[in-house]
Specification:
The protein is mainly alpha-helical. It has helices spanning 2-6, 13-30, 37-43, 49-68, 76-99, 115-137, 142-162. The longest helix is centred in the middle third of the chain and has 24 residues, at 76-99.
Length: 166
Amino acid sequence: MIECILATDMSNHFKVFSTLKSKVVQAQKVNGNGESILKTIISASNNNTIEKFDIQQDIMNYLIHTADISNPSKDFAIYKTWANLCMDEFFHQGDLEKTEHLTISFLCDRETVNISKAQIGFMNGIVNPLFFLLVEILPELRYFSLNLEKNLLEWKKEVEKEGDNK
């Protein structure tokens, strides 16, 4: 569980994603018998207990990380509320950094960051690839991807309404 929690740290995002992505790509290459991708990944250990544990750990890390940043896959009203709360936290950090004459961290400057554009970037660069892979592994979760598509359109509408602010 400790490793799962550490996997939620965004500095580990690309490692968590690429680790499972390579397992999915490999499973797709060998999956000629119609078996689920998840089952193929897990059975790739050839009954080696340590290898099977490592594969299961990678899957759990991925699922917990995906769940941790899953707000964009929820109903837009819920997602927007959480996005604004997160951005308030980022902006507060930026305000403190500015007060201390420190370099303001990425996405933390309320004077230059546009929340709608930031969310579009977050969705396109981070969340959508995670959920695309999730649906490859568990196709019955496709409805999350449908919510992501709807929410991306909603943020684009917000950008249009806002005009050229920030």
